[in-house]
Structures
1.
Amino acid sequence: MTCSLSENERDRIALSAQREDEGIRVERGVVYMENPREEPMSESMQDVSERAMNYFREGLNCAECVMRSYMDTHEFGLPQEIIALASGYGGGMGKTKNCCGAINGAMLALGLKKGRRNPFEKETPQERTAELQILYQPFGEMVTEIQNHYGTLLCRELTQPFSDWNSKERRKFCQKLIGFCAAIAAKYAVD
């Protein structure tokens, strides 16, 4: 029996085969990158990445690891207790497996460097809104880079291949993801 495929179906199958050759697979609409291409890290990116991964070994959650490592390597003049802002983001926001805590931690860390210190510094709501349009750019670029690297931002999709949340394999994967997110936050924090 022969089956004729449309041009779109042939293209989709060819793209799927190409993705598998590149270490990319798609399951139920989720893209998994088996061997994402790593770009070289600067010394400061490497430092913050290693610190974040070490904090994970010490029992900090994903968001706390990223934010804490960033706080260690930069002077913000803020109290150490500010880390409490990251505590609820672990496990994909309160262990609901929504937006990955490491990505949220990267957003918080980048906010320490690029965020507004006084949103009311601008006089009018229009000026404040215009300021945000500029401010959002590095945050959006960072999130896009993370999403392009991993194929998703959702904890449940990132960890879906691991049936046991407490497994060593899942923890190793998350540790690498935490290190990557910490390094990317450091990359986008550069002026």
2.
Amino acid sequence: MAKPDSSIPLPSHIHYELLLQLLEQQTMASVYQTPQVRSQVQELIITLRKALSQQRQLEDICRQLDLPVEYQWSTNQLSERFRSEDLTS
């Protein structure tokens, strides 16, 4: 569990952007002729956009509460952070 004085780990926005680009540019192009699959891909794109929007709302709340946010690039980065916190506790 993160300590109140430590930063809050969140995924970097680039993770959403890369997934959205892949789905919009490559996946949609390959499933365009298949309406059922295309519909599911569209739903996935909508869900990812909502997730990014919700994360931005969370970031805004954290800023208002002066809670620091740390953008994570991988789960390894996160596990290393918690391992080092365990060693210093």
3.
Amino acid sequence: MALKRIEKEKKEQYQQLSQPIKEEIKSLEKKIQEIEVSSLKNNKIGKYKFFLVANLYTDIAISYIKMNRLSMHIMDLKQDEILENARKALYNAIANLEKLVGSTIDEDLNDVSERLKDTHQMTPYRKLNLFKKIEYTLKILSEELEGGKWKYKLLEMFSKFAVVVKNSINFRELTSMDPINPNYRYYNELVAYAKDLLRKSADEYREKYEISGHEVPDMRKAQEFLKAILRICNVLSQYDEAKEVKKIIETWNKKMEEDLKIKEKRK
């Protein structure tokens, strides 16, 4: 396939207009380095740095997406390398949060409170704002990449993000909190948000199971996300919802067993 010819004037216009964005990315990368260095000297930053750095990496991802959109607007050229840089930046945002809250989906909900010790500055309200910013960036990145080879890479990122959100909740603090506490409302919003992300991840892996030819690991993963919701419901005494989730897990498990029997018969 012949390479698309782009007029010199359009290239120059793109270079000129994208330069401030490139400088913005360099500035954000410098801020990350400064925070990393400062955190070694200043204990006051402490665990809060993980949230600060995640926010900056998300800003970098947004900047790369801006560059690609500018390229599309001026040259009608989608730049995969730039979008890959955006994906890497967003991955780093999520991975940075994993360093604090962990990446294990079946993490004991009460043990998480120890990891979150001394992060009181990052209130449930602030967490919600950061997480929704990351989710929105992941959404627009998905739209720019348009599925294809990226679909399951993005699913992996989304599911990792869902686990991070769930692991960021201090359930011990929530269950002992007075409902008149201003944080109580946002804690409950954060819990609902985490459950929504976990359910979306479960549904996506359930769909992948059907598309990929009934690969057992995909169904197992889908069930893991539902089990995470189940644990949340049990900790918060949300027993009606827990019953519904348990039924779905049982239904999906039965479906997987039936599919395995069919596979065995075909051998």
4.
Amino acid sequence: MDLTGFEEFVADRGHVLFRSAYALCGSQHDAEDLVQIALAKAAARWSWIEAAPEAYIRRIMYRDFVSAWRWRRRRPEVLAASPPELPEGGPGDSVVDRLVLTQALVQLPPRQRAVLVLRYLEDMSERQVAETLGCSPGTVASQASRALAKLRTSLSDDAHPTAVAPSAVSTSTGR
């Protein structure tokens, strides 16, 4: 089996796949596992997918992430009774906002998180997301709507004084 093209693909696009996996998982280790599993599955079918491997590998990643088996196997972190105090003002605000947003994303159910990552991070249309996840465009729209509503609630100024304003999480994609 000739995997020369596969090795080149992983060297060129592996970091992009990892970025998407990290956005889904919220953990470096889980993201590495997700990418590794997807690449192992792709390597076995490399001769069939060599012409357009990235879409195939992304589909593997998103479906594996959303699957109930992976969700049941995953052990979420145990949260403290109250979060640590966040610093107010200063150059670290964007880092704090990003951490708060990441924490809010991790709290979403896997399918909703996958829809948001595909829709807004990967900039896919509802139709493309539906094809990737194997569901209808209506399901994508409803999952996105519910996920954004949960994010707005969890990122409200009352819940997190230095969090991203709820207006920063919008349903428009600029199209």
